Amino acid sequence: MIKFSRQVFSLYGLPRGSRIRLISRSENETYRVVAPNGQCWALRLQRPGYQSVDSLASEIAWLVALREDGVVATPVPVAGVNGEWVQTAMGRTMVLFEWENGRQPEIEMDLRSCFRTLGGITAQMHAHSRKWQRPARFERFSWTFDTALGRAPRWGDWRDGLAMDAARRDLFGHTVDLIRRRLEAYGSGPDRFGLAHCDQRLANLLVQGDEVKVIDFDDCGFAWYMYDAATPLSFYEHLPQVPALIDQWLEGYQSVSTVSNVDVEEIPTFVMLRRLLLVAWIGSHPEADMARSLGVSFTEQAVPLCSAYLRRLG
To answer: 51 — phi, psi (to 5°)?
Structure first.
Protein backbone atom coordinates (compact mmCIF):
# COMPACT_ATOMS: atom_id res chain seq x y z
CA MET A 1 0.00 0.00 0.00
CA ILE A 2 2.89 2.37 0.75
CA LYS A 3 4.40 1.89 -2.71
CA PHE A 4 0.98 2.36 -4.33
CA SER A 5 0.31 5.53 -2.32
CA ARG A 6 3.63 7.02 -3.35
CA GLN A 7 2.85 6.35 -7.01
CA VAL A 8 -0.57 7.96 -6.69
CA PHE A 9 0.83 11.04 -4.97
CA SER A 10 3.50 11.34 -7.64
CA LEU A 11 1.03 10.98 -10.53
CA TYR A 12 -1.16 13.78 -9.21
CA GLY A 13 1.52 15.92 -7.61
CA LEU A 14 -0.09 15.64 -4.18
CA PRO A 15 1.73 17.06 -1.16
CA ARG A 16 4.34 14.97 0.59
CA GLY A 17 3.00 13.57 3.83
CA SER A 18 -0.56 13.10 2.52
CA ARG A 19 -2.50 10.19 3.99
CA ILE A 20 -4.80 7.78 2.14
CA ARG A 21 -7.64 5.74 3.66
CA LEU A 22 -10.16 3.32 2.14
CA ILE A 23 -13.72 4.55 2.76
CA SER A 24 -15.82 2.18 0.61
CA ARG A 25 -15.56 -0.88 -1.58
CA SER A 26 -18.30 -1.44 -4.15
CA GLU A 27 -17.84 -1.77 -7.91
CA ASN A 28 -14.64 0.18 -7.28
CA GLU A 29 -12.60 1.24 -4.26
CA THR A 30 -12.93 4.80 -2.99
CA TYR A 31 -10.23 6.41 -0.86
CA ARG A 32 -10.06 9.67 1.05
CA VAL A 33 -6.73 11.46 0.60
CA VAL A 34 -5.82 14.11 3.16
CA ALA A 35 -2.90 16.53 2.82
CA PRO A 36 -0.98 17.80 5.86
CA ASN A 37 -2.79 21.15 5.54
CA GLY A 38 -6.19 19.40 5.71
CA GLN A 39 -7.09 19.62 2.01
CA CYS A 40 -8.98 16.49 0.89
CA TRP A 41 -9.58 14.56 -2.29
CA ALA A 42 -11.57 11.47 -3.27
CA LEU A 43 -9.62 8.84 -5.19
CA ARG A 44 -11.60 6.22 -7.11
CA LEU A 45 -9.58 3.13 -7.95
CA GLN A 46 -11.30 1.33 -10.80
CA ARG A 47 -12.21 -2.33 -10.81
CA PRO A 48 -10.00 -4.06 -13.42
CA GLY A 49 -11.76 -4.41 -16.76
CA TYR A 50 -14.87 -2.45 -15.81
CA GLN A 51 -14.15 0.78 -17.71
CA SER A 52 -11.77 1.69 -20.52
CA VAL A 53 -9.64 4.82 -20.38
CA ASP A 54 -11.85 6.44 -23.04
CA SER A 55 -14.96 5.54 -21.05
CA LEU A 56 -13.56 7.13 -17.89
CA ALA A 57 -12.54 10.25 -19.79
CA SER A 58 -16.04 10.42 -21.27
CA GLU A 59 -17.62 10.21 -17.82
CA ILE A 60 -15.52 13.15 -16.66
CA ALA A 61 -16.29 15.13 -19.82
CA TRP A 62 -20.03 14.95 -19.11
CA LEU A 63 -19.88 15.70 -15.39
CA VAL A 64 -17.60 18.69 -16.10
CA ALA A 65 -20.06 19.95 -18.73
CA LEU A 66 -22.98 19.56 -16.31
CA ARG A 67 -21.19 21.65 -13.68
CA GLU A 68 -19.91 24.29 -16.11
CA ASP A 69 -23.35 24.64 -17.71
CA GLY A 70 -24.95 25.19 -14.30
CA VAL A 71 -27.12 22.07 -14.38
CA VAL A 72 -26.03 20.39 -11.15
CA ALA A 73 -23.15 20.40 -8.67
CA THR A 74 -20.89 17.51 -9.65
CA PRO A 75 -17.42 16.48 -8.43
CA VAL A 76 -14.47 18.56 -9.61
CA PRO A 77 -11.93 16.26 -11.29
CA VAL A 78 -8.20 16.68 -10.75
CA ALA A 79 -5.85 16.07 -13.66
CA GLY A 80 -2.53 14.35 -13.16
CA VAL A 81 0.77 16.13 -13.67
CA ASN A 82 0.65 14.95 -17.29
CA GLY A 83 -2.65 16.80 -17.82
CA GLU A 84 -4.78 13.65 -18.14
CA TRP A 85 -7.85 12.92 -16.00
CA VAL A 86 -7.23 9.16 -15.97
CA GLN A 87 -4.07 7.80 -14.40
CA THR A 88 -2.63 4.30 -13.96
CA ALA A 89 -0.57 2.90 -11.09
CA MET A 90 0.46 -0.73 -10.64
CA GLY A 91 -1.90 -1.79 -13.42
CA ARG A 92 -4.99 -0.03 -11.97
CA THR A 93 -6.72 2.97 -13.53
CA MET A 94 -7.96 5.74 -11.29
CA VAL A 95 -9.54 9.18 -11.19
CA LEU A 96 -9.19 11.86 -8.54
CA PHE A 97 -11.72 14.50 -7.46
CA GLU A 98 -11.73 17.41 -5.06
CA TRP A 99 -13.57 16.45 -1.90
CA GLU A 100 -17.23 17.48 -1.96
CA ASN A 101 -18.82 18.59 1.29
CA GLY A 102 -22.32 17.54 2.21
CA ARG A 103 -24.28 14.84 3.97
CA GLN A 104 -25.33 11.60 2.37
CA PRO A 105 -29.12 11.24 2.66
CA GLU A 106 -30.33 8.25 4.67
CA ILE A 107 -33.53 6.31 4.18
CA GLU A 108 -34.58 6.96 7.79
CA MET A 109 -34.72 10.71 7.05
CA ASP A 110 -37.70 12.60 5.64
CA LEU A 111 -36.53 12.54 2.02
CA ARG A 112 -39.56 14.10 0.34
CA SER A 113 -37.91 17.47 -0.27
CA CYS A 114 -34.68 15.80 -1.36
CA PHE A 115 -36.51 13.63 -3.92
CA ARG A 116 -38.50 16.60 -5.22
CA THR A 117 -35.27 18.56 -5.73
CA LEU A 118 -33.58 15.53 -7.28
CA GLY A 119 -36.45 15.08 -9.72
CA GLY A 120 -35.99 18.61 -10.99
CA ILE A 121 -32.23 18.17 -11.25
CA THR A 122 -32.65 14.90 -13.15
CA ALA A 123 -34.98 16.53 -15.66
CA GLN A 124 -32.35 19.20 -16.28
CA MET A 125 -29.66 16.53 -16.68
CA HIS A 126 -31.79 14.70 -19.24
CA ALA A 127 -32.42 17.93 -21.16
CA HIS A 128 -28.68 18.62 -21.12
CA SER A 129 -27.80 15.14 -22.40
CA ARG A 130 -30.22 15.54 -25.32
CA LYS A 131 -28.56 18.71 -26.62
CA TRP A 132 -24.96 18.29 -25.43
CA GLN A 133 -22.38 17.90 -28.19
CA ARG A 134 -20.40 14.87 -27.07
CA PRO A 135 -16.62 15.04 -27.64
CA ALA A 136 -14.75 12.80 -30.05
CA ARG A 137 -14.10 9.26 -28.79
CA PHE A 138 -16.98 9.55 -26.35
CA GLU A 139 -17.63 6.06 -25.02
CA ARG A 140 -20.16 4.87 -22.47
CA PHE A 141 -21.97 1.56 -22.24
CA SER A 142 -25.72 1.04 -22.58
CA TRP A 143 -28.15 -0.21 -19.94
CA THR A 144 -30.57 -2.26 -22.00
CA PHE A 145 -32.66 -5.25 -21.02
CA ASP A 146 -29.92 -7.58 -22.26
CA THR A 147 -27.13 -5.83 -20.34
CA ALA A 148 -29.23 -5.68 -17.17
CA LEU A 149 -31.21 -8.91 -16.92
CA GLY A 150 -30.79 -10.61 -20.30
CA ARG A 151 -28.10 -12.34 -22.31
CA ALA A 152 -25.14 -10.10 -21.39
CA PRO A 153 -25.75 -8.93 -17.81
CA ARG A 154 -23.17 -6.37 -16.74
CA TRP A 155 -23.63 -6.99 -13.01
CA GLY A 156 -24.10 -10.75 -13.10
CA ASP A 157 -26.98 -13.16 -13.64
CA TRP A 158 -30.04 -12.62 -11.44
CA ARG A 159 -30.37 -16.44 -11.22
CA ASP A 160 -27.18 -16.43 -9.14
CA GLY A 161 -28.64 -14.16 -6.48
CA LEU A 162 -28.26 -15.21 -2.85
CA ALA A 163 -30.78 -17.75 -1.51
CA MET A 164 -32.18 -18.34 -5.00
CA ASP A 165 -34.20 -21.57 -4.81
CA ALA A 166 -36.42 -23.12 -7.49
CA ALA A 167 -39.57 -21.26 -6.42
CA ARG A 168 -37.83 -17.89 -6.47
CA ARG A 169 -36.20 -18.58 -9.83
CA ASP A 170 -39.63 -19.33 -11.23
CA LEU A 171 -41.23 -16.20 -9.74
CA PHE A 172 -38.33 -13.95 -10.69
CA GLY A 173 -38.24 -15.52 -14.15
CA HIS A 174 -41.88 -14.57 -14.77
CA THR A 175 -41.08 -11.08 -13.52
CA VAL A 176 -38.07 -10.73 -15.81
CA ASP A 177 -40.15 -11.90 -18.77
CA LEU A 178 -42.83 -9.28 -18.03
CA ILE A 179 -40.15 -6.57 -17.72
CA ARG A 180 -38.79 -7.59 -21.13
CA ARG A 181 -42.21 -7.49 -22.80
CA ARG A 182 -43.13 -4.13 -21.30
CA LEU A 183 -39.80 -2.53 -22.26
CA GLU A 184 -40.12 -3.82 -25.80
CA ALA A 185 -43.55 -2.19 -26.00
CA TYR A 186 -42.31 1.01 -24.34
CA GLY A 187 -39.50 1.39 -26.85
CA SER A 188 -36.18 3.22 -26.80
CA GLY A 189 -36.66 6.23 -29.03
CA PRO A 190 -34.60 9.39 -28.39
CA ASP A 191 -37.40 10.90 -26.31
CA ARG A 192 -37.16 7.98 -23.86
CA PHE A 193 -33.59 6.69 -24.08
CA GLY A 194 -30.32 8.58 -23.87
CA LEU A 195 -27.32 9.52 -21.74
CA ALA A 196 -28.27 9.43 -18.04
CA HIS A 197 -26.65 9.03 -14.63
CA CYS A 198 -28.14 5.55 -14.06
CA ASP A 199 -27.04 5.25 -10.41
CA GLN A 200 -28.48 8.06 -8.31
CA ARG A 201 -28.69 5.89 -5.21
CA LEU A 202 -28.52 7.67 -1.87
CA ALA A 203 -24.80 6.94 -1.53
CA ASN A 204 -24.23 8.95 -4.72
CA LEU A 205 -26.01 12.07 -3.47
CA LEU A 206 -24.83 14.79 -1.10
CA VAL A 207 -27.12 17.30 0.57
CA GLN A 208 -25.73 20.65 1.68
CA GLY A 209 -28.40 23.04 2.86
CA ASP A 210 -31.04 23.15 0.13
CA GLU A 211 -28.61 21.91 -2.52
CA VAL A 212 -28.49 18.33 -3.76
CA LYS A 213 -25.21 17.31 -5.37
CA VAL A 214 -24.86 14.29 -7.65
CA ILE A 215 -21.59 12.35 -7.48
CA ASP A 216 -20.08 9.13 -8.83
CA PHE A 217 -20.91 8.98 -12.53
CA ASP A 218 -19.07 5.67 -12.94
CA ASP A 219 -22.23 3.88 -14.16
CA CYS A 220 -23.57 6.70 -16.31
CA GLY A 221 -24.45 5.57 -19.79
CA PHE A 222 -27.23 5.23 -22.30
CA ALA A 223 -30.48 4.07 -20.74
CA TRP A 224 -34.18 4.83 -20.41
CA TYR A 225 -34.51 8.25 -18.82
CA MET A 226 -37.19 6.97 -16.44
CA TYR A 227 -34.70 4.45 -15.09
CA ASP A 228 -33.33 7.44 -13.16
CA ALA A 229 -36.63 7.49 -11.26
CA ALA A 230 -35.83 4.05 -9.87
CA THR A 231 -32.16 4.32 -8.93
CA PRO A 232 -32.62 6.70 -5.95
CA LEU A 233 -34.67 3.90 -4.36
CA SER A 234 -31.84 1.38 -4.72
CA PHE A 235 -31.78 -1.26 -1.96
CA TYR A 236 -35.00 0.17 -0.44
CA GLU A 237 -37.59 -0.66 -3.11
CA HIS A 238 -39.55 -2.78 -0.62
CA LEU A 239 -40.11 -0.02 1.95
CA PRO A 240 -43.56 1.56 2.44
CA GLN A 241 -42.41 5.15 1.76
CA VAL A 242 -41.36 4.34 -1.81
CA PRO A 243 -44.64 5.39 -3.56
CA ALA A 244 -44.60 8.78 -1.82
CA LEU A 245 -40.96 9.33 -2.75
CA ILE A 246 -41.70 8.51 -6.40
CA ASP A 247 -44.54 11.05 -6.31
CA GLN A 248 -42.16 13.71 -4.98
CA TRP A 249 -39.54 12.86 -7.61
CA LEU A 250 -42.17 13.15 -10.34
CA GLU A 251 -43.41 16.48 -8.97
CA GLY A 252 -39.88 17.85 -9.19
CA TYR A 253 -39.28 16.40 -12.64
CA GLN A 254 -42.54 17.78 -14.00
CA SER A 255 -41.70 21.25 -12.69
CA VAL A 256 -38.96 21.24 -15.34
CA SER A 257 -40.09 18.87 -18.07
CA THR A 258 -43.23 17.06 -19.15
CA VAL A 259 -43.69 13.37 -18.43
CA SER A 260 -46.26 11.37 -20.38
CA ASN A 261 -48.75 9.01 -18.76
CA VAL A 262 -46.95 6.16 -20.49
CA ASP A 263 -43.68 7.21 -18.83
CA VAL A 264 -45.33 7.30 -15.42
CA GLU A 265 -47.01 3.92 -15.95
CA GLU A 266 -43.64 2.32 -16.65
CA ILE A 267 -41.82 3.55 -13.54
CA PRO A 268 -42.80 0.36 -11.61
CA THR A 269 -41.09 -1.62 -14.38
CA PHE A 270 -37.88 0.33 -13.90
CA VAL A 271 -38.10 -0.07 -10.12
CA MET A 272 -38.48 -3.82 -10.59
CA LEU A 273 -35.66 -3.96 -13.14
CA ARG A 274 -33.38 -2.12 -10.74
CA ARG A 275 -34.27 -4.41 -7.84
CA LEU A 276 -33.49 -7.58 -9.79
CA LEU A 277 -30.34 -6.00 -11.20
CA LEU A 278 -29.24 -5.43 -7.61
CA VAL A 279 -30.12 -9.01 -6.68
CA ALA A 280 -27.69 -10.02 -9.42
CA TRP A 281 -25.10 -7.48 -8.27
CA ILE A 282 -25.14 -8.72 -4.67
CA GLY A 283 -24.74 -12.30 -5.85
CA SER A 284 -21.76 -11.41 -8.03
CA HIS A 285 -20.06 -8.95 -5.65
CA PRO A 286 -19.73 -10.77 -2.30
CA GLU A 287 -16.74 -8.59 -1.40
CA ALA A 288 -18.71 -5.34 -1.58
CA ASP A 289 -19.62 -3.62 1.69
CA MET A 290 -23.31 -3.25 0.74
CA ALA A 291 -23.59 -6.85 -0.45
CA ARG A 292 -22.22 -8.15 2.84
CA SER A 293 -24.55 -5.97 4.89
CA LEU A 294 -27.74 -6.96 3.00
CA GLY A 295 -27.12 -10.67 2.44
CA VAL A 296 -29.92 -13.12 1.68
CA SER A 297 -32.63 -10.84 3.07
CA PHE A 298 -32.39 -8.69 -0.04
CA THR A 299 -33.50 -11.59 -2.23
CA GLU A 300 -36.21 -12.58 0.22
CA GLN A 301 -37.64 -9.05 0.34
CA ALA A 302 -37.84 -9.02 -3.47
CA VAL A 303 -40.38 -11.88 -3.49
CA PRO A 304 -43.46 -9.79 -2.55
CA LEU A 305 -42.28 -7.04 -4.91
CA CYS A 306 -42.28 -9.50 -7.81
CA SER A 307 -45.72 -10.84 -6.86
CA ALA A 308 -47.19 -7.33 -6.62
CA TYR A 309 -45.64 -6.29 -9.93
CA LEU A 310 -47.06 -9.35 -11.73
CA ARG A 311 -50.52 -8.71 -10.27
CA ARG A 312 -50.47 -5.05 -11.22
CA LEU A 313 -49.01 -5.16 -14.72
CA GLY A 314 -48.96 -8.78 -15.78
So the answer is: -135, 145
